[in-house]
Amino acid sequence: KIYVMEKVVNNKEESNFLNSLKDIVKSARQFAYNSVNLAQLRQNWYIGQKLVVQEQKGKDRAEYGKHVIKIASKTLTEEFGSGYSETNLRSFRKFYLTFKDYAIQQTVSAKSKDAIQQILPAILSWSHYERLMRIKDKIIRDWYMKEAAEQMWNFRTLNRNINTQYYERMLISQKKDV
After folding, report:
1. Is the dihedral angle over the CA atoms 140, 146, 149, 153 positive or is it negative?
2. DSSP code string of the chain
3. Are residues 36 and 83 in contact, defined by beta-carbon separation less than 8 angstroms?
4. 111-115, long-range: CB within 8 Å, 24+ apart, which pairs?
5. What number is the average pLDDT over the span 4-31?
6. Rounded CA separation 54/28 (Å)
7. Residue 175: what pLDDT?
8. Torsion sign, CA atoms 136, 159, 96, 118
9. Rounded to an integer, what distance in angstroms lies between the CA atom of residue 123 and that of residue 84?
10. Cα gap 121→106, rounded to integer Å
């Protein structure tokens, strides 16, 4: 026979202690997730920036050979493994072009040199940004980005809200109220 022993925590002090330990672990895991996410966003943004500078000489469209992406994809894949396909590198380039006027930081710094520069919310994942990049209108894209970060929308919620034109419906309902 197998007996499962379970200790019931009756002591409130002990319960608070155990809950505080759980909070420490949860906080550390969230910090690690945020750090990895921020590193991925920075990597993708900077790779996109380098591709634009090299391939496009800083312009929105390339004037000469698209071979740069092919060579970069081959080299990065050989060195670091999957995740650097030509399709992904094009997405990184688009990420940079879409959000080149933003800074990528974990939090908004009070000591920011340029207080006007907008910050890309690091709380949003690469999947969020891939979805946001498909919105052509900057005002609408920025609204979804801000709402997703403030409301902590997961990717599915963001995608559903974009697909159901949540922003547009909000505008219509506000006009009816006026």
Report:
1. negative
2. -----------HHHHHHHHHHHHHHHHHHHHHHHHHHHHHHHHHHHHHHHHHHHHHTTSSS-SS-THHHHHHHHHHHHHH-SS--HHHHHHHHHHHHHHTTEEEESS--TT-S-TTSEEEETTS-HHHHHHHTT---HHHHHHHHHHHHHTT--HHHHHHHHHTTHHHHHHHHHHHH-
3. no
4. none
5. 81
6. 39
7. 73
8. positive
9. 23
10. 7
**Burial grade of 120 (CB within 10 A; 0-12, 13-18, 19 or more):** buried
Summarised one tens digit per residue, pLDDT across range 145-162 is 999 999 999 999 999 999
Strand partners, 83: none
Length in residues, the chain: 178
**76: number of Cβ within 10 Å:** 17
Reported as a single tens digit per residue, the pLDDT across 69-108 is 999 999 999 999 999 999 999 999 999 999 998 887 654 4
pTM, two decimals, is: 0.76
